């Protein structure tokens, strides 16, 4: 991973998702927050990285499973690089899972920072032991083999109601997930750092017993 990408991840992890959401509002970005159905399934909830995208669609009915599909599916993890974060669209399916302990064991050593599934995941107990982060709509024990095919890898997708392009900045914590377009990352992070600084200022003043109305006149609440 380049020093610039590492610096972006480091800066992001010093912040929180709500600050990036507020910053995106400040500069006029629309719809950066994934919907409330995308929630953390793992004990660890904080993750930041750059989107590596995939889209799954239903397999044709009564067709024998195409083993070549598994190679394409595994490439989400096997071809990942340090700093990637997997983002998957399951096309509305919830009768099987698109992420589990095998892909985690493949991806984590390569530097994959987490996975977000617009659908379901499994093997969460094992994934917790690997200190990995998974966000999804829920859990399901069923395999995607024979149920889902890969339609695309590293193409734009929709996850949690937000369009995600490869390379977008993804940041998740216990409040949810934001997606920052790659050409807006620096601007949003700079504004978000200002939001956090204002929050810290307010916290200190309130702890000192100062009047909130006076504080708002001096420095508007973010």
CATH C-level class of the domain at 30-180: Alpha Beta
* Tally of DSSP helical segments: 7
Question: Percent helix among the residues?
Answer: 25-40%
Rounded mean pLDDT score: 92
Q: Mind telling me which CATH architecture of the domain at 30-180 this is? A: 3-Layer(bba) Sandwich
- Provide the β-strand percentage band: 15-25%
Oligomer: single chain
Number of strands: 12
Poorly predicted regions are none
Q: State the order of secondary-structure elements, H for helix, E for strand.
A: HHEEHEHEEHEEEEEEEHH
Question: Biggest β-sheet: count, sense, barrel?
Answer: 8 strands, mixed
CATH T-level fold name of the domain at 30-180: Glucose Oxidase, domain 1
Rg computed from alpha carbons, rounded to a whole number of angstroms:
19 Å
What does the overall shape look like?
A: elongated
End-to-end gap: 33 Å
| Helix/strand structural class | alpha/beta
Tell me the CATH superfamily of the domain at 30-180.
Answer: Ribonuclease E inhibitor RraA/RraA-like
